[in-house]
Amino acid sequence: MLLIEVFRQVAIYYAHTFAGADRSQKFIFGSADFEIIDRETFRIGTCPGHCTIIAEVVNEKTRDGVVTGLTLEMTAYIEGKVAAREAMAYQWMPAEVWTRIRCRGRNSLGLPDMHEIPNATPVARMRPGAVGRHNPRNAILANPTFDTAEISAVTVIDTNHPSLFDHALDHVPGMLQFEAARQIAMAAANASLGLDTNRMVMHQLEISFEKFGEFELETIAHAVVETDPDGKGAVIAAIRITQGDEAIATGRVHLQVMPVDIWTMVQ
């Protein structure tokens, strides 16, 4: 997830530096397709690694001859080797246009113009190991349910989380939805196929953001998992992030099973 955040920051930097996006403009991310190319490049060594990102514009969105959006193809090189790629579509707009869009969208849901952060309610958070995490605070799913093939869970909106909410936002951030998608895919692989989440890693994540997620509405992550027909990974999870009857994000998460490391069984 760190590299996905790096790609997001590269996209914003590129827009400001090379595409003329003013510092006051607001960004909307439409979709992303992230894939790990060489997992060995991520192995932790005895000293810090060196990562370089190369970004290439593959599509431009213009309005009255002015660039207002891009699709970037970004490649991460770690120690000179291709480590991962991501294609990201996003756009930007003046703050006043953003405000009009946000108010119109919130009003259509019966919400006031200004957002509010609801008080936290008691939930039964999922175990970190069940969603591929170690730190309990980083397990952001709760109250899971399992119906036939689909697993669903509430997404915990913790606006005090140091990495998922490192700056103020008026909507549920895309990075939180990325992580909810990854975690619900892990949970689905375990619940539906009995796979060990301690040995599972995300290989690819495709996601499209359909609508803004609102803080006042319950955010539910859903996943249905199947074995990968192409053999690139172990399983593919079709995911949806919903509020009420509406999907705010949809996509697919590809998971792989790592080889057994016998030393993990030693105390």
Automatic annotation (TrEMBL):
InterPro entries cross-referenced by the UniProt entry: AfsA_hotdog_dom, HotDog_dom_sf
Pfam family, one: AfsA
Domain A-factor biosynthesis hotdog: 1-88, 130-254
Annotated protein name in UniProt: A-factor biosynthesis hotdog domain-containing protein
Species whose genome carries this gene: Rhodococcus maanshanensis
